[in-house]
Amino acid sequence: MKRFTLLRSRGGPSTRAAMLFTGLALCSLPAWADEGMWTFDHAPLAAIQQRHGVSVAPEMLARLQAASVHVGASASFVSPQGLLLTNHHVVEGCVARLSSAQKDLAASGFVAQRAADELRCPGFVARVLQRTEDVSARVTAAAATGADDTARNAARKSEIARIEKGCSDEAQGLRCEVVPLYSGARYALHHYRQWDDVRLAWAPEADAGFFGGDPDNFVYPRFALDAALMRVYEKNGQPHQPAEHLRLAATMPREGELLFVSGHPGQTERLRTVAQLVSARDVGLPLDLAAARAEIAALHAFSATSPEAARQAQSTLFGTENWFKATQGEHQALQDPALLAGKRQAEQALRDAYRQRGLPGDPWADVAQANALNDKLQPQLWGLSFGYRTVYAAAIDLVALPHERGLPEGQRLAAYSDAALPQFERRLLAEAPFYPALETVRLASTLQRSLDLLGPNHPYVQLALAGRTPQQAAQALVAGTRLGERAERERLLQGGAAAVAASADPLVVLARAAWPLRRALKLQAETEVDTPIQRAAERIDQARYTLYGHSVPPDATNTLRLSFGPAQGYVSNGITHPWKTTWGGWWDRADSFDQREPFKLAARIDRARGQVDPRTPLDFVLTADIIGGNSGSPVVNARGELVGLIFDGNLESLGGNYAYQDHTARAVAVHAEAIMAALEKVYGATALAKEMRGNR
Amino acid sequence: MKRFTLLRSRGGPSTRAAMLFTGLALCSLPAWADEGMWTFDHAPLAAIQQRHGVSVAPEMLARLQAASVHVGASASFVSPQGLLLTNHHVVEGCVARLSSAQKDLAASGFVAQRAADELRCPGFVARVLQRTEDVSARVTAAAATGADDTARNAARKSEIARIEKGCSDEAQGLRCEVVPLYSGARYALHHYRQWDDVRLAWAPEADAGFFGGDPDNFVYPRFALDAALMRVYEKNGQPHQPAEHLRLAATMPREGELLFVSGHPGQTERLRTVAQLVSARDVGLPLDLAAARAEIAALHAFSATSPEAARQAQSTLFGTENWFKATQGEHQALQDPALLAGKRQAEQALRDAYRQRGLPGDPWADVAQANALNDKLQPQLWGLSFGYRTVYAAAIDLVALPHERGLPEGQRLAAYSDAALPQFERRLLAEAPFYPALETVRLASTLQRSLDLLGPNHPYVQLALAGRTPQQAAQALVAGTRLGERAERERLLQGGAAAVAASADPLVVLARAAWPLRRALKLQAETEVDTPIQRAAERIDQARYTLYGHSVPPDATNTLRLSFGPAQGYVSNGITHPWKTTWGGWWDRADSFDQREPFKLAARIDRARGQVDPRTPLDFVLTADIIGGNSGSPVVNARGELVGLIFDGNLESLGGNYAYQDHTARAVAVHAEAIMAALEKVYGATALAKEMRGNR
Fold this sequence. Notes:
The structure is a homodimer.
Chain A: H1 23-28, H2 45-52, H3 58-67, E1 68-71, E2 73-77, E3 83-86, H4 88-98, H5 105-108, E4 110-111, E5 119-120, E6 126-134, H6 136-144, H7 149-167, E7 174-181, E8 186-195, E9 197-203, H8 206-209, H9 213-216, E10 228-233, E11 258-263, H10 274-303, H11 307-334, H12 337-356, H13 363-383, H14 391-405, H15 421-429, H16 436-454, H17 459-465, H18 470-480, H19 486-502, H20 506-548, E12 561-566, E13 570-572, E14 575-577, E15 580-582, H21 583-592, H22 603-607, E16 617-622, E17 634-636, E18 642-649, E19 667-671, H23 672-682, H24 686-693
Antiparallel strand pairs in A: 1-2, 2-3, 3-10, 4-9, 5-9, 6-8, 7-8, 9-10, 11-12, 11-17, 13-14, 15-16, 16-19, 17-18, 18-19
Helix pairs in contact in A: 6-7, 10-11, 10-13, 10-16, 13-16, 13-20, 14-15, 14-19, 14-20, 16-17, 16-18
C-alpha cells in the first residue's frame, strides 16, 4: 500500500472530495452500502444491523479501539504482553536499519525466540487512542474573537495549542491532539497514550513479505506474507500490558462474512463535485493516460532495439507502467455509471438542502466555474511539460530554481516552498547514469506531445522544433547538452541565475524560453482554479456536517477509523477473482515465473511445501473502505476476533481517493491462518505463536 | 476459444481487414515481428532466421503439414497408429452424443484402454491437406469470358466447381477445394485426403477440460486440461497409419523459445482501414461499452434487491459481462498508439504504391466516406435498439418477420435471408421464463439509452415515453404485455401481419412504430456503408497482393496456416502474467473459490495432488498469431516436436480480428507435459501415453 502516495502527486488541482451519503441514497444504492471510514464514537451500528443482520456490541468496539495502535501506519495488540501485529512493509525501514553487510535481516528474515532477542526499532513510536472529546465549542468561540480572517486563524491556532498542551503529559506518555473534522466544522480532541520503545519480534524475508515486488503492488490475486510482529515496551524495560488485545478467531471467516477494519486512513478527497469527477474522467485522466501510453510505446520500441537498450529503459518503463496502472484504476472507477449516478444524487440532495437553509452563495457553481477553466488549462499544461526525471526536466529546474528562490515565498509557485527547495537540489545533484539514446527517445516523445497538444504554430513548439521533427529536434538537443554530467548541473546550480543566463547549452536555452510560459499557466491554475476550489470545498464540507451531522463520516484525517464490509471475490477486466488465495497458489506464482525475481520464493517458504497444507489460505479481499494509512490494520469478525491484516488495496480501489464503490474495489489482507502457519510451521516461532494463541 | 464467434455478431459493418505488412514496416516495428497466419508454401523462413536466429528446415514444415489435421477445428496426428490430439472442447459435442442419462461421459470423462473400446464420433470428418496448387490462371481466364459482373461471377463459380470435381474422388477419400486468397486475387486448389470414421480415445471430465467455465473463457492465467485424443480409422476398420506424426519434444520449451503453430484459423478482418479503426475506437466500441456498462449496472442494482432477483438476472448478467469483456479487449487493443501507428504507416505505403501504379480510384477514400456516415448512423442505431432477447425484442421480431418475409429476398435486410428465418421463429417459440421485474429493469435501461442517444424530442422517444420516465414507461409496458406467454407469441407469429396489426398489446403497438424507423436506418447502413466498404476492401486486398505478393500473408480462410512466436509472459491491466501455469496453481484456483462451480475440480484431478508434482506445467502462452479455428492446433518447437496444444486466446488477443500485436495478446495452450501427466498419473491411460511416447 505504500505506493498509494504516488497518486497524490498527479492530476489536477489538489482539492479534497467527500462522498455525500444520505439515508435516501442508502435505499437506492445498496451496492455502496458499506462506504465510510467512521470515527468510533459515531459508528453506524443500527445501519449495520439493518443491512447485514449483524449485531455489533458497543463493548466490542471499545475493545477494538483499545487494541488498535498507531505506528505511523496501523497495528494492533495481539497478546497481553504487548505483542503488536503490523505489516512487513511497515517494519521494512527498521529491518534495514538493524541490518549490516554481515547480517542482512531483509534477506534472511528475523525471529526473536525470546523477548531478550527482540531488537529496538529506532524512531518507532506506538500510540493508542484512549478517548476523544468534542472541543468544537472552545475552538470556535476562540476563533470568533478575531476581527478578521488572519486574527481568527491565529486565535484558533493558539486555542488548539492551549488545549493540546493542557492535557499532554510527556512523562506519562500522554499526548493530546486536536483534529479538525468536516474541514473544521468540528474539532475533536484525541487523547493518546504513547510509547517510544518498540522492538522487532518477527519479520519474514523480503522475498516473502514483499513477494511479487513492485509488479504485484496493487495487484490481486496476491501472494504475500506482508506481516510482522513487534512488541511495545514500557520505560522500565518491561513489556507493556495492554488493557485489551485481539484474540485469534475461533472460526475463520467464510466468503460473504461481514468483517471490520480498525486503522488510520491518511487522507481522502471525497468532496470533489460531480463536475470535477466528470472532468477527471473526460479531460484530466485521459490526458494522463495518453501521455503514459505514448511514453510506454516509445520505451517499448526503444527496448526492442537491443538488450542493452532494454536494460537502460527498464526502470523508467516500469515506473511509467506503474503510473499508468494506477491512473487506469482511477479512470475505470469513474467510468462506472452507477458511481457517478450516486454522486449526482447525493450532490443534488445536499445542494437542495444548502439552498433551502439559505446558506450563502453556491459553492458547487464556484467549483464548476473554476473547473471549466481547469479543463482548458490541462492540455496546455501537458503541452508545456518536460518529462519526468529527464535531462530536459533538469534544465527546467535549473532555470526555475533561482527565479523562484528570488521571490518572497508567498509569490512563488506552490511547489517551490522553502521546505521543498532542498529536494529539487538533491535531485539535480544526484549521480544518475545518462543514456543519450534513451533521453532522445523520451525527449522526442515529450516534444511530440507538445506538438500534438499545442499545435505547430505555438511559439514554444516553433522554438523547440525549429522546423525539425520531434525526433530530429530531440537528437540535436540531447547531442548538444552537457547536463548529463553531474558537474555541469552543479556548476549551473551554484552559479544561480547568472550562470543559467550565460549558458549556451541548447537544453538550457530552450528551458529559458519554456519556463516562463509554463510558469504563467501554472500561476493561473493556482490562483483561478486551486484556490477557489479549495474555498468552495471547505464550505461544502462544513455545510454537509451542518445538515447531516455524524450520519456521514468525515474525510480521513490519519486518525482511528472503523470500516466494514464482507469478504468477497469480484469480476474485473473480465477476470473472475476469488475471495482468497492459498499457499499452493503462492508456490504456483513462483513456479510459473520459474522463480525469477521478484517471484523468487524465500528459501524457507520454498522448503515449507511439505509442512504447510497447500490449501491453507494466504491472502484475502473484503469490501471495507480503506486507503493509504490503513496498512497494518487488523481485520476482525463481528465478535472482535482477529481474522486478518490489511496490507494493500487492489488496482480497482484506487478510485477510493474520491469515491467508494464495492463492485470491484477491494482491501487486500493477509489471512490470520497464514500468519499462524508461518510462525508455527515455517519460522519456528513457537513462543510467539503460543503467545498469540493464548497458550491454547 | 469457441466463444470467439461472439465477436462476429457485434460492431459496425461486417467488413474484413488486413494487416499491411511490408518489409519497411518490419524494420521500424520490431514489436510486431511475428504477425501472420502463413500458408505453408510461403512460410517466411528467411525472416524467421534473421529475426530469431532460428533455422527451420523445409522438411520440418512438410512433416508438420502432413501431421496437421482438420476436424472442423484443428488437430494433429501424434502416433503412427492415427492417434489424433485436439481440444476437449472440440470433442465436447461428440461426448454429449455418446452420453446417456445412465452414463454421463461429460461428467465422468472417458478413457479407452484398448482400441476396441474407442467410440465413433458421429458426423466427425478428419482431413489432411496433401498439397496445394495455384489455379489462379484457370479461374481468372474463365471469369474473363463473362460480359458483365453477373456472367463473370457465374463463369468463375462453374470453373471452380469443374476444378474441384476434376480431382475429387469420394471412394478414395480424396477431396478438392478451391480457396480464394487475397479476396480473389489468387485461387489455390487444396487437395485433401479425408476420413469419416473418427473415434474418441480419451476425454477428461468437463470439470477438468472446461475448468473455470465461462468465467475463465478468454482468461489467462488459465488452468484447464482442454485436451482430448481421438483416432482416425480407415474404411476397413483399421487405424489409419499417417505418413507423419508429431513426436513429443525431448526437451520442453523455456520462456522465450520460438514455437510454431499449425492449424486452421477461420477468418480475420485485417483489411479495416485506419479510418475504420479510429472510428471503432472512438465511436463504435465506446457506444457498445456504454450500453453494456449501463445494462450491467442496472442488472447489478436489480440483483441486489433479493437473492431471487439475483438468480433471475444471473444468466443475462453473465452474458452481458462476457460481451463487455470481449468488447473491452478489442477496445484496449485499439488504444495502443503503436498499433495504430503501424497500421497508418503500412496503409500509407500501400496507398502510395497503389497511386503510383495508377490503380483505379481511391478505395481508402471510399471507405472513409462510407465510414463517416457510419459514425453518424451508429448512435441512432443504438438509440433504436430494443435489447438482446428481451420481450420487447420479441415484439420487434413479430412485427419485422411478416414484413420482411413479404419482400423478395433481394429487397430484405440482410439478416432476414430465407436461411435465417427459421432461427427467428425458433427464438420466438422457445419456452423461456418470463420475469416481469427483470424485463422492466432491462426495458427501462433500453429506453434510457434511446432517450440519451436520440434526445427527448425524437418521435420514437416521444412515443415510447409519452411524458413518463423510462422507468415508468417500462413498468407500464411490461405490466400490459402478454408476450411473456409463449402461446401469445405463437398466435401472433402464426397470424402474421394481420394478427400483428390487430394486436393492442402495448409492446406490439410500440414495435409497430419503432420497426420502420430502425429498418430505414439499417437499410441506409447496408446500402451506403456496408456495400461500398465491402467493394473497396476487395480492391485493397487485391492490390495488396499485386504489389506485395506472398510477402504478406492472406487473411485467414479456414485453411491450413503456420504461425509462430516465442512463449512469453506479459503485463496487462497492471498485472504481470507468467508464461506458464502449474498444476499447483490449478488446485489453488479451485481452493481459492472453495471449489464452487465452475471452479470445482474433477474428483480425479483433486485426488491427483499426491501423484502429480505441483510444479508440473499446465498451460502456457505464446505470441503466435491465431484466431478462432486454431483450437486444437499443435504447438511444436523448431525441430517440429510437440510441446503444446492451442485452446484459446487471451482477452487482449481479441483485437486480433483486425490487427496483430504481441505486447499483451497471447495464444493459450495446454502444455504437453500436462497432457502426459494426465494420461499417465491421473487417467491411467497407460497404453495411449506409451503410444504417444513411441514406447520410450
